[in-house]
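Justification of resources, computational component.

The compute hours requested in this renewal are based largely on the per-chain cost of generating structure records like the one below. Each record pairs the submitted sequence with a full structure-token output. That output is archived, and it is also reused by downstream analysis tasks.
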Amino acid sequence: MHATGSQDLKVWLADGTNYPGQDDMRGRQDRLAESLQEIYAGLGENQRLVLEYKFFEPAFYHTDVPDWGTSYAQTLALGEKAMVCLDTGHHAPGTNIEFIVMQLLRLGKLGSFDFNSRFYADDDLIVGAADPFQLFRIMYEVIRGGGFGKDSGVALMLDQCHNLEEKIPGQIRSVLNVQEMTARAMLVDTAALGEAQHAGDVLAANGIFNDAFYTDVRPILAAWREERGLPADPMAAFKASGYQKQINEDRVGGQQAGWGA
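The structure output for this chain reads:
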């Protein structure tokens, strides 16, 4: 980190156990805390430790950092330079991820996102592919909680595995999805929403949310890009550039890399 100028050291641990009684879970937490303290002590003034969590895989009985509460407890004990990383694919089905986002922002401990999408578990699909409305709700809480903007301290990253689609267009689509849902989240009439919530008007409050979500922001974003000298349609611009064809041809005859590379 010192050599490269990196600000964040993101730690994800695959450690855990597969069978009851395999190891002392409490002892493992104590050893985890001790090792994180050693890492934390080596951080520079403007560096952070960001601790990711995942509720299973490759450990299946228990994972040492399985949820946001464990990550929060460990980083809270370390100090102000330790934060939580939220991977949107690292939750059990049905988890209210936006609640976790809200709570970590409320507690001042949300350090970063790993954006992806999942139908089952850690699918690492294009963000917003499975549930665009969830991405919208997450971005609403990010904005509302002060996690949006270059000075927020929250790093937004993509963590995806493009096995079927080409990687670069997949990344472009991910960025566009986040951009579109962020724009929609900014359209929520927070004053009207607050009034409806205070009045206990459930349908009005939900309708205000839906009005923002169903607003087509793509023309506005296309104009925003053109104003900055960028392609209005990044997907079409990349396809027309011929870059994908070029790199595909350059790789002919090379050695394919895989999981074991």
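DSSP finds ten helices and seven strands in the chain. Strands lie at 8-11, 16-17, 48-52, 62-63, 82-87, 110-115, 155-158.
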